[in-house]
Amino acid sequence: MVEQVMYRINRKAVFRAFLQAAVLGLISLAVALSANALRPSGGIALVADWSPQARLMAAWGEGFVIPLEQAVEFYDTREAVFVDARPAWEYEEGRIPGAIHLPWQGWEQYMAGFLDAVPDPHTIVIAYCDGEACELSEGLALLLREMGYKNAVVLINGMTVWEQAGYPVEKGPDAGSLP
Amino acid sequence: MTLLDTNQPKGLLFLLARLALGGIFIYASADKIANPADFARAVYYYQLLPDSLINITAIILPWLELFMGICIIAGIWLPGAVLLANVLLWSFFTALVFNTARGLDVHCGCFTTRPDPAAPPPTLWYFIRDPIFLLMAGYLAFKVYMEPKTK
User: Fold this and answer.
1) pLDDT digit string, tens, across residues B2-29
2) Which of A64, A159, B108, B127 is most buried, by CB atoms within 10 Å?
3) B130 assigned to some structural domain
4) Has residue A93 been placed in a domain?
5) Range of A143's domain?
């Protein structure tokens, strides 16, 4: 015969669990807040503005983010070059007309094409992707700045705000963007 | 409420699971405690919490993980620490499933607050790793909250 062991809930342990978890939470809260306040840097703010604009400006300075109206103006005057930081399928599904494809993932393959198309490092380069939290354009703009394109900026949530404002969208593969 | 429970479960597997899970939590807390601003960013990228709760979560969570990990390894307040471990791990896993389902591929920010932004997040690996953690935490919960029934 195999001996069968039956189990039952240990009510005392469960009761203790909630009590101890609450105390552990309070201890963590107290230590965490003290440690944060005592940091040499003064710690991080308890509540911060996490809007994409505030986040990018805090990280990279005022000029890092371009408002849509400004971007549209540069588009109309052909003063800026738009670069699409998204993967190929999204680029082909719809992009800002004339945007150069420079996907953040795998940019090495596309960079030569970009450098040919935009030889002047003083050019205003507007990087965009899609979604408020999209990091692709941010990474790309930083990379371009490192490469000497000091006027590289980010249009936050670019594709969405562009489409919502009713500006034209270009579709299909673009031979010029192929690596 | 005594610190060290003399009636707590025994066994080599139980000890190993405690060492592993406690160690994981302590290890996970270190980089986050060191870089709160980067961790806050990782929390932000999950796109789950309201903006007002992001920083406070980033401040408290790592310390909670640290104390929990210490308790689980040392065998102090096991019921409470194991409860928290299960709640946290299920929250992380739910967030992972939810974000994957809505097509948001985020770096988990679990063990490093500064992932390589050019490398895509190893989401498949997260889906293998997290259930292993859940299994360990579930096993600890079984050992801590269940007792053999005496006939």
Assistant:
1) 555 556 788 899 999 999 999 999 999 9
2) A159
3) yes
4) yes
5) 52-177
